[in-house]
Amino acid sequence: MSQSPVTSLAPDPKRWKALTFIAIAQLMVVLDATIVNIALPSAQEDLGISEGNKQWVITAYALAFGGLLLFGGRIADLWGRKRTFVTGLIGFAAASALGGAAANEAMMLGARALQGLFGALLAPAALSLLAVMFTEAKERAKAFGIYGAIAGGGGAVGLILGGFLTEYLNWRWTFFVNIPFAVVAAAGAYFVIREPSEGRNRSPLDIPGVVLSTLGLVALVYGFTRAESDGWSDAVTVTMFVASVVLLAAFVVTEAKVKSPLLPLRVLTERNRGGVYLSLGLAIISMFGLFLFLTYYLQIVQGYSPVKTGFAFLPMIFGMIVGSTQIGTRLMTRVAPRLLMAPGFLLAAVGMLLLTQLEVDTSYAGLILPAQLMLGLGMGTAFMPAMSLATHGVEPRDAGVASAMVNTSQQVGGAIGTALLNTIAASATTAYLTDHAASATTPAAQKMLAAQSMVEGYTSAIWWAVGILVAASAIAAVLVNTGADSGTPAASGDGVENPEDAVKIPVVAH
User: Fold this and answer.
1) Fold that domain 13-194 belongs to in CATH
2) Alpha-carbon dihedral of residues 319, 325, 327, 328, nearest 10 degrees?
3) Domain residue ranges of the chain, discontinuous segments joined by +
4) Which of 78, 260, 324, 336 has the smallest set of CB atoms within 10 Å of its CB?
5) What pLDDT score was predicted for residue 67?
6) Model pLDDT, residue 493
7) Which parts of the sequence belong to the Major facilitator superfamily (MFS) profile domain (predicted)?
8) Cα separation of 89 and 86, whole Å?
């Protein structure tokens, strides 16, 4: 690269410009998670993708992304975060071009798998670059506030953009739109980002760890995806879950024994980081389920167009931006992170609780809008310190893999949320239809029963989402114990593993 490396002792003068390009890349990755959902029905029809195979447009991406994240984080530590970041962007753009130009099912599925692969390089590199570039407490709070707002609200932006592109152009543009994002971010990163010189981990790559973690995470994500379509008792579903447990257990044993592990267990065992990974994963389970059910509810039950549905999510985006950049950022240097995360998840749970009152003819302004505002404010407030704490107390050489763990908890949480909550909703819908079928004797009554049964399914699943968010709040309150200003645990002495390493990459300032 053309820039000389800098040390982490002095702040990088171009760090805010660098944040702009990191944010653009993060927005692209998060957008892609939801934008394709809107385009899927049109793409399925155009390319002749069968009903049984349509889920693979989503699953191919999820498997590659979720399975390779830890590997991507380790490559960033080994190869250099800037180089990994730019490579991920270029690859993601090429894969998106391939998806947009897809002429058949195989080409589409291959493009989606490639997007997942390059996304797994890009996402941990982006977060770990922030961790090593922003070292001053207030600036770090502001940078992670922006990043947290994008991570939380980008999915809803994807629904709006996906609706526009699908309705007014065609589904191919939901892929092509990634290319300008990636080109701008890659060019900006190449010329602006200067990575601290001492943060590399040049240890040999842990090949057994790569194989076991990738296969274990792929089996886990596929198990939940399969459960959604084929049921929890399906032989392949059960086999995938058993294989996942065995492979991931073998991975943990391997990591405890090898000299240069892919995922040093010290990254997981520090209580603050462990609390973040667990609470964030649970919160994402709820959020993924909500995006899904609210999209279905607005389009199928209320009859909204794709564009109108996208705009209906704006209050949640607004809430996330305010919660992340105004509440989280302003308070992070003054109060302990748990005092932002636990109440944030609880506020989101209250917003979710409102949505359990959905009826077929529920007023958007009277119920859905205030619920979304509460959800957005709560999630934005909680996500911001959570993203920042992902690299709490890590040595510079572990920043990439610690960042990858956040993305892994989100990806696995998303897979679990979609499968688990969909299954609960489907069961409740079927039970309601069975109980009330005899009373629906006219076509109008049958149509109303179908709508009511769908809403019954959504609200049953949303009740579970409320409980999951309350659990996330409790975990954040109990496990996250770092203080506001010092960056050391408030209640005990188990924060930074090696105090001499803490000076190289300051722990998150709260």
Assistant:
1) Growth Hormone; Chain: A; (1.20.1250)
2) 110
3) 13-194, 206-261, 264-481
4) 260
5) 82
6) 36
7) 18-485
8) 5
